[in-house]
Amino acid sequence: MDFYKQENAYLKTRLAELLDHNSSAAFIELAEHFNTRFIGMDEAILSLQKDIRRQRESIAYTSKDSWADIILVQPVQQKLRSEMEHFEKEISTLKNEFNQKLVSFLPAS
Predict the structure, then answer these.
(1) d(CA 61, CA 79)
(2) Are 51 and 86 in contact (CB under 8 A)?
(3) DSSP letter, residue 62
(4) Whose CA is closest to 77, among 91, 105, 56, 97?
(5) In angstroms, rounded to a whole number, what is the distance separating the alpha carbons of residues 39 and 78?
(6) Per the CB 3.0–4.6 Å rule, which of 9, 27, 28, 97 could disulfide with 22?
(7) Please, are residues 105 and 48 in contact by the beta-carbon 8 Å criterion?
(8) H-only helix segments in the chain
(9) pLDDT digit of tens for each residue in the chain (109 aa)?
């Protein structure tokens, strides 16, 4: 999750740099759209980090020899894996969309 947190921060920094060079109304509207989505990703990261922390705590308190404990932890683990996969797809899609839509706004070298 730390990687995604850093990547999201990098995307926000790139967006800010682009805003320094382009202040057209159309670009500002697009920038606001992406900024809102990046903030949503930050919130999703925090939520997943909390869920991961809770799951680690649950696992730490389970008995490794107790099938009952393992059976209780397993569905939460599967749900967490599913949420992580969904998040990874979502942030990858956002990154690709950001790069595709904003490449035309990059300043010429």
Answers:
(1) 19
(2) no
(3) S
(4) 56
(5) 26
(6) 27
(7) no
(8) 2-21, 25-61, 67-102
(9) 999 999 999 999 999 998 988 888 989 999 999 999 999 999 999 999 999 999 888 888 776 667 666 777 888 889 999 999 999 999 999 999 999 988 776 656 5
Assessment of whether the complete model's pTM goes beyond 0.85: no
Amino acid present at 9: A
Tokens 């949420």 appear where? 83
The Cα–Cα gap between 94 and 88 comes to 10
> What one-character DSSP code corresponds to residue 24?
-
Return the HEC string of 78-106.
Answer: HHHHHHHHHHHHHHHHHHHHHHHHHHHHC
How far, in Å, CA of 103 to CA of 51, rounded?
Answer: 35
Q: Give the residue carrying structure tokens 């990874």.
A: 88
The tokens describing 31, both together, are 């920038």
